[in-house]
Write a structure and sequence with these properties.
five-stranded mixed sheet, alpha+beta
Amino acid sequence: MKRRGVPRSEVELSWWRLLISGLAWVAILLFNVFAGTVHAQPMRAAIDSTFVFPPVAAPAERAWIISKAPLKDGTVVWVGGHPARLTRTDPPGWYAFEVPKGVPGGSQSVSLVGPASPGTLRLTVVPEDALGDELAVYLRADLGADFQQRYRERLLAFAAACARLCPAELTDTIKQLSGTKIEGLEPLGGAGQRPGTDLPLARQPLSRPLPSVIPINSQVLNAARLNSLLRVPVVNGALLTSAQGTALCSQLSGRLLLGSLPTGRSIGLLNLLFWGEMGVDPTSGGHPTQSTGPIPHKGEPPTDILKDTLGFTSGNGKGVTIHVLDTADSSADSFVMDIDVNYYNEVYPARPGHGSIVGAIAQAVAPNAKIAYQDVCQGNTCKTLTVVRALCAVAQEARQGGKHVVNLSIGGAYPSLGLLLALNELATLGVPTAASFGNRDDCFGMALGDLCSHYPADWTKNFALGTATGAPTMLVSVAGWDVANKEYATYNRTAVVPWALNALPSVQAPGEFWFKVPLVAGPTDTPFFGTSFAAPVVSGLLASWMSCRPGVPFMPLITTPGQNPLPASVLNACP
């Protein structure tokens, strides 16, 4: 957009002069103005005078602590429960460290005191299985075809200013990013959705802001003038917006080719520099969650298990569509679990199916609901853009009418920006999502101080419809309930490492079922259990409720051993 009487190039040049002059403040302010007060802890002086840059990194990548207080070479910094050592670099005040290879993905604490110390800084770690040579891109639809040129100019201008104020390695990354290409742009909502068009008003506004995917103390940024420098909002939950609408699914999506550039650092820099215009995620967004171990009720159909353990009588779901975004489509499920499982000294090799089993459980709970399968995974990997586009397709269908529920028995450690915004869009349209909490194998090998994350389940509190106790949520995090011992199942994500818990589930449900599937010796009873198979119990209950009642029900987290984890008013809500 041009200012009248002033050439666009002159306007942009003036803007960049302001940006570069603002950068000059950083050299002074990094040492004199760090007044953040969010983490009012005993170590306040040490913590509030430092922050991590960039805010996203991957194992084996270099990141920096910027500190007002001088630090010695070799000072130990803890990333989760893993130590690294700081090295002084130029310019003064920047201290480099390598993210340890054992650090799990997701949000981890960064501390100069010790593992899991209170009041620590945060770093979002990209899991090793999500690394690659490209990123998923979400681009504001109204930015036009010339965005690639402005993308390059902004990065080059930032690199030029950073050359005087930042470590050479960081400046070099920014320069190389300026030469990366955005490819395959298309409407995120699919061919039937014109990008940037007006969208209907939300049916169900959420009462809580979305969490930030950029873990930087906004008060520190504000004090150091970095919020305006890096175009970062000072409040959490800013969305990609356009002049016509605020929904993510009205924007464009594509791929940004990284080549050999560091994945985590690139995500951190691009999300900071282009926040509100463009967002990026790792290409891989998660995986099917399927656990291993012994289970009871051999050979019983799901409805009998639910009746015997919960007192479930019958479900409904008429007029509701349950969208199973998983490993199956309407005709096939190519997923095969890649390890053998021993149940009561019986070995079950190569168990087939995941999404098809999830859908069958949901159908058992809500027999009159329509099950709509969408294959969003290729083997053990679920691509970020594939999942987000599938969610946007559900949103488009919801705008046309009907009642809808989403089941996500997949997930991962990285808090994907696109996944967060797409789920928020569905929630405001009145579409609830049941997400698996994650299994204990997600937390294998963790050190004391590490956090074990699983998204989208860990966002459940941010999707609550109220702040009071008892408010239902549009994103239900479903943990498994042990049907034999009638308690919190040991296959749940943090059952054996409670210190690694990043967020509580919102409800428990049985996640242990048997199905006849074709194996080498012919169809046989095969066990499936884990939080993947607890989630569709809740999806079915949501569909049953919505077939005869308004809104969504409240399902509390009941953890008392021996007590039914689901209220009778929800279990048998509709005839």
